[in-house]
Amino acid sequence: MELRDIKQRFFALRNGLLADNLRKKASDSHRMIFGLNIPQLKEIADECGKNLELARILWSDTSCRESRLLAPMVYPSDNAAPAQWLGEIQTPEEADVLCHRLLRHYPETVDEALRLAESEEPLLRYAALRLMLNQLPAHAKLAKQMAESEIESSIPLTAIISRQILDELEFTAS
Fold first, then answer.
1. 155-166 average pLDDT score
2. Model confidence, pTM
3. Within this chain, do residues 44 and 123 fall inside the same structural domain, yes or no?
4. Which of 34, 65, 118, 167 could form a disulfide with 30, with the two C-beta atoms 3.0–4.6 Å apart?
């Protein structure tokens, strides 16, 4: 599937109500939002298959929400991890999809999370916690330390995912 075909699919599946709600959110900086949901994007990704060049083209389209979310889904996991993408994330949703759909499969995930946790940028610290959420229960102790430390920072973006990690750890311990 070519980029033109993908954009046509975005247009055909657009959801105006969801797109309007996303535009109103202060955290979404994309100029073009079609309002597709994750299952719709996953369906398109399955049709595209894994394609390194397509993933890079989609990721470079920083103005379109759906392009950025689709890129990690079509990136071949047998290639080197696109760690530089973490430094380019624009929204928590991008971090969620990038971490869950792609980066969690790489052995250097925990090291990358530790590096990001030291950042001054709340969105990068959010990505660090999102990476660690995918590493539960294997790295429960480290995830707990990171989450507890981040809750103390009182940053709303990272407090939510920190609480999610701690709740998950509490649930799995019981």
1. 96
2. 0.92
3. no
4. 65
